[in-house]
Amino acid sequence: MTADLKARLKRKGVRFVPNTREQAAAWNRKSMPDMIPEHNDTHHIDWTEIDPRSAKETYTGQAALRVPDRSNPQYKLYWPIRHGMFNEQDYEDKGQLLRDFCIIIGDALRYQVGLSDRRDRAQYGCVFVVPDLYEKNYIITITELLFREFGFGRICFIQESLSASFGAGTTTCCVVDIGAQKTSICCIDEGMCVENSRINLKYGGADVSEAFVKMMLGSSFPYSDIALSRRHNLLVRDELKQRCCTLGYVDLAQGSQFYELYVRAHGEDTRFYKFKAYDEVMLAVMVCYRSGNHED
Question: Beta strands 81-82 and 270-277: pairing type?
Fold first, then answer.
């Protein structure tokens, strides 16, 4: 990947600065965090407060990601949807998978839409967006859940790329959807999905985050605990990707760049890190592309 990046930079007329990655790693090894008390942190995180006497059985959405690791009682994160489909690989019991799915949709209907009473839903129709590439059993299962569990009066299914084209007001286009766990591509022609153009690649933004973290750990990243499976590190990884990763060639011509990171953990003071990175900011994004002799 580094060789491919050097070739790209050469075609763009950008000079690849040698030994810059090693110099950035040497600087990172000496970097120490600054501690910021919570009352001085203007962007502190509102963690989900858990009372052992009235703790909920489940939490969904952002509230689930912000449950402290040392909460009482303890909670475990579940992901019933992965790569845009049911996550049957991480569930041993399909019944539990469907229950978790219903809990997430039910909370969204109650708190986001305002449909808390099941009897009111019979007056509504439901438009459910499905992947461009879907299985028949997936549609059958969703249909049963929407009618029996949620009580909708009418159901309409629409493919995700087709719904995106309708939202954009065009009937002919190519839709590229880059998500956290999948990248889907589909061509729309006169309001119909072109069957042979549908592609579902099982990688996305989350893989970029993971690749960037691993590369930075190889460059003596000062926050070495980021590799541990703590919940707040999920938020830290996404923030790193958004702040640092780029496909801009001009930045590399100036050598390594300074970046900042705030680590906020429940019950701990905020840690403020400064670190340097060079080509890692581009190499992490390049994991989504095939290397080879091709023109940009």
Answer: unpaired
Q: Residue 255 in contact with residue 14, Cβ under 8 Å? A: no
CA separation for the pair 199, 125 (Å, rounded):
29
Domain count, the chain: 2
pLDDT (tens digit, 9 = 90+) per residue, 121-162? 999 999 999 999 999 999 999 999 999 999 999 999 999 999
Torsion from C-alpha of 57, 62, 63, 66, nearest 10 degrees: 110
pLDDT tens per residue, range 188-243: 999 899 999 999 999 999 999 999 999 999 999 999 988 777 888 988 999 999 99
Amino acid identity, residue 43? H
Same domain, 111 and 163: yes
What values do phi and psi take at 264, rounded to 5? -115, 115
Say if residue 239 is in the same domain as residue 169: no
| Residue ranges making up the domain that contains 174 | 84-201
First to last CA, the chain: 15
Domain boundary among 201, 228, 248: 201
293 found inside a domain = no
Measured CA to CA, the distance from residue 224 to residue 211 in angstroms comes to 15
The domain that holds 189 is classified in CATH as 3.30.420.40
Task: Give the Cα separation of 276 and 259 in Å (integer).
Answer: 6
Q: How confident is the prediction for the chain on average, in pLDDT?
A: 90
